[in-house]
Amino acid sequence: MSGTRAIVLHHVFRPDNTVQILEVGAAIPWHACALGHAIVAYLPAQEAARIMAEERTALTGRTRTTRASLGQALAQVRRRGYAVENQEATVGDAGIAAPIVGRDGTVTGAIGLVGPAERILDHATQAELARAVLESARSISRDLGAGRSGAVLSALR
Fold this sequence. Notes:
The chain is α+β, with helices and mostly antiparallel strands.
């Protein structure tokens, strides 16, 4: 996160022939992407409150901008351990992301995927993709030295 935006640090192109744009360096408003939801859901209360107090602009007709709808989305992230975004940043795209935890047990970032909404949000596909994203987040977190306990890592199980 940089302020109220999720910064894309690495981008791997999908292995298909769909139109894709390199997004390294993109700064996406946290409230409009799964990466942002996955991070903000696990921030310390004071920091999350500061971010929630900022003004939010809709990027599409589906972007959540109200405190209530975002609060519900973040609670859902904490329940299941990952975030899902449906055409909130870009019409036609959906995303799934899970938090990455550092050595000190705090969220240091997130890993996610974005693709065509009809494919990402298909019930069977979404479950499979969510498992892959969660496993990747756990693996990266362990590589960063995160222990196997703690609130965030417990949610990733």
